[in-house]
Amino acid sequence: MSDLPVPFRLALVGAGRMGRQHLAALATSRTVEITDIVEPEPATRRALPGDGRRVHASLSDLLAHRLPDGIVVAAPTDEHAGLTRTAVAAGVPVLCEKPAGRSAREVDELAAFAAAHRVPVQVGYWRRHLPVLAALRERMRTAALGSIYLVTAAQWDGEPPAAVFRATSGGIHLDMGVHEFDQIRWLTGEEVVDVHAAVAGHVEDPAAATAGDVDGAVVTLRLSGGTLGTVSLGRYFPGGDMVRAEVFGSRGYERHDLLDPVDPGRVFHDALRRQADAFADLVRTGRRSGASLLDAARAVEIAERAAAAARTARPLTANR
Residue range 105-124: average pLDDT? Predict the structure, then answer.
């Protein structure tokens, strides 16, 4: 008889770009299994592989028929909070993609709602599940690098997402920057005190410019323990998707290229599997190693402050 635990049964809500990443990542998991998919778009449902998973047109339809062990919310940003509330109200734990809401207030209210219902919710900040970053965090906490002066974080996409996505994503600081803001808070254990920001003064896609998004941004942070943080974000990196972290200390320096542009999927999928395992462990034991809704609210709050600071930059113009 196998001594492996019974797989943790997940329902995936949203079979778009991010949902497909979860499907690919968890296909080889021995501990977590996606048994159901919720996808409202008929064309997307028809394109799903016929692999035996149950497919539903809405979350309410799923919950009316069965309650999975947990739900992964990978729907568009503006649906995160509503879908999470629906699942929590039904007593089903949630692993919600970042940012979990369009405003810090919305995420804070969602955190209070989940706490009142005593239903665990984890937010998909996958960087926390990279072994190289976990080891760096431990070295920082034990002062192996000495006093930390500066933590930098960079995320540049190989190419921008579709304009229709950018129109509803909340902009570069909310769509991309929250990863870096959460990462810096998590690595340092410090809170953000001051935020300064600037954006590039041109946008390649006129539709994105009309929607208010930008192609490049820089944010500088002053943290509660005296550490500085810098974040750079961009929509165009010809070598492919890039994520990088650096730490400057009085006794050491480290740089880690967290995503290899040649094979970004390998590292990303491994982190998604570890993240799902951490979620299952949270539900089963109460031990939390992933990001909470309160963590997510603070990342969104920093994004809001960065976006506000960047509005003083010169007006955007679309490249022709």
Answer: 98
Look at residue 319 in the predicted model and tell me its pLDDT.
54
Q: 51 CB contacts (<8 Å, ≥6 apart)?
A: none
The pair of three-digit structure tokens given for residue 79, joined into one six-digit string:
């649906």
Domains observed in the chain:
8-127+284-290 (3.40.50.720), 129-262+299-318 (3.30.360.10)
**Closest Cα to residue 12, out of 1, 51, 4?**
51
CB-based contact 294:121 (threshold 8 Å): no
253 and 147 in contact (C-beta within 8 Å)?
no
CA atoms within 13 A of residue 106's CA, in its CB half-sphere:
17
What is the percent of the chain with per-residue pLDDT over 70, rounded to a whole number?
96
Residues 8 and 281: their CA atoms lie apart, in Å, by 9
Q: Across the chain, which distance is largest between two alpha carbons, in Å?
A: 67
Residues 6 or more apart whose CB falls under 8 angstroms from that of 1 comprise none
298 — phi, psi (to 5°)?
A: -70, -35
Nearest-angstrom CA–CA distance, 259 and 155: 9
User: pTM higher than 0.90 for the full model?
Assistant: yes
DSSP state of 128: G
Which range, of 48-52, 155-159, 306-310, averages the lowest pLDDT? 48-52
Q: Which residues pair with 318 in a beta bridge?
A: 203
The per-residue pLDDT for 313 is: 57
Token representation of residue 302: 């920093």
pLDDT value of position 311: 87
- Round the average pLDDT of the chain to a whole number and report it: 93
Q: Nearest-CA neighbor of 4 among 28, 26, 32?
A: 32
Both tokens of residue 156? 């540049």
Q: Name beta bridge partners: 155.
A: 233, 243
On the question of pLDDT at 272 being above 80, the answer is yes
pLDDT value of position 164: 83
